[in-house]
Amino acid sequence: MGRRHAPRVLLADEVGLGKTIEAGMILHQQLLSGAAERVLIVVPETLQHQWLVEMLRRFNLRFSLFDDERYAEAQHDAYNPFETEQLVICSLDFVRRSKQRLEHLCDAEWDLMVVDEAHHLVWSEEAPSREYQAIEQLAERVPGILLLTATPEQLGMESHFARLRLLDPNRFHDFEQFVEEQQNYRPVADAVALLLAGNKLSDSELNTLGDLIGEQDIEPLLQAANSDREDAQAARQELISMLMDRHGTSRVLFRNTRNGVKGFPKRELHTIRLPLPTQYQTAIKVSGIMGARKTAEERARDMLYPEQIYQEFEGDTGTWWNFDPRVEWLMGYLTSHRSQKVLVICAKAATACSWNRCCASAKASAPRCSMKGCRLSNATAPRRGLLKKTPAPRCCCAPRSAPKDATSSSPATW
């Protein structure tokens, strides 16, 4: 893909297989070969610093992070602020919030655009989201597009079609036709399997191939593929390429799974059942009364973080870690596993900060914290520690700041 001219693809590897690095390799190759000079990376706000660090640390690419402040400063240097830098990272929210800003982005003549977490681009024929419309306008102007998502079809067929439509609007222009094609892939898959098997093809199988590739004369290729000549394998491969170009998602979707990639350690889930403290029970009851207008989904989400509910009533003086059984259990685990690297992932930044204070008050080895809002040097220090081969201090991460490539013997989620 890195050697393609203006690649427009959807990278849909499973979580943890390195889509960020894969995209970095593609854009690095494009920059080295001169196929691209200006690159725009659009990501959720919480992933901006991660991309900034990964591009610098792994590929020595110095991207500029554009937010409201940087955009305002750059307006003094050029009519179009985005023309002041060749390599830019910005958030999806930053892109869609201002019509003028979006116009400047569209006019900046990018060669390649990367969009991470592309499943956040919500689309329907009647009402596409503002985020989707913003990326669609950019996709019409930018030659090369890399969309990244680990869940290509999780949000339904319509959402999957919407992303493919960004890459090739001519090929994916009719949703109903796309659904019909999806339901008729079996003949195509069978035809590819026949060609890969290398066996002689029957007359009916040759006719099936002719029907699937019907717009041009492929009789010479069929004869070559069904012969004992030296070019038989090349002919079969060319027929497979023709089928790929004419059916399905063609050459725009690439997906690797853990089952297909060797070398990953087996994951083991260990659940620990702990009692719910009376302090939390009281806080939850009061919160339920005061939040009667909340939906069932909102109430269920709040229940996942009882320490946050308790803190809302107690304020800054609340010390939930003094009675939370999870703290006692985790402190005991860390004490008995001092030689191991441990990664603690908290859903809230405030929880990570409280856990850090808890360790300090207990005179335990305080973990290094990485979270949104940290100085860049401070945020990357825990990542460097976990990447070392020798044991390092524990790392406590807030949402979206957990290092994807870190090796930890015991990751724990909060």
TrEMBL record:
InterPro entries: DEXDc_RapA (IPR057342), Helicase_ATP-bd (IPR014001), P-loop_NTPase (IPR027417), SNF2-like_sf (IPR038718), SNF2_N (IPR000330). Its EC number is 3.6.4.-. The keyword Hydrolase applies. The keyword DNA-binding applies. Pfam families: SNF2-rel_dom. Keywords: Activator, ATP-binding, DNA-binding, Helicase, Hydrolase, Nucleotide-binding, Transcription, Transcription regulation. GO terms for molecular function: ATP binding; DNA binding; helicase activity; hydrolase activity. Residues 1-170 form the Helicase ATP-binding domain. NCBIfam families: PRK04914.1. This is RNA polymerase associated protein RapA. The gene is rapA_3.
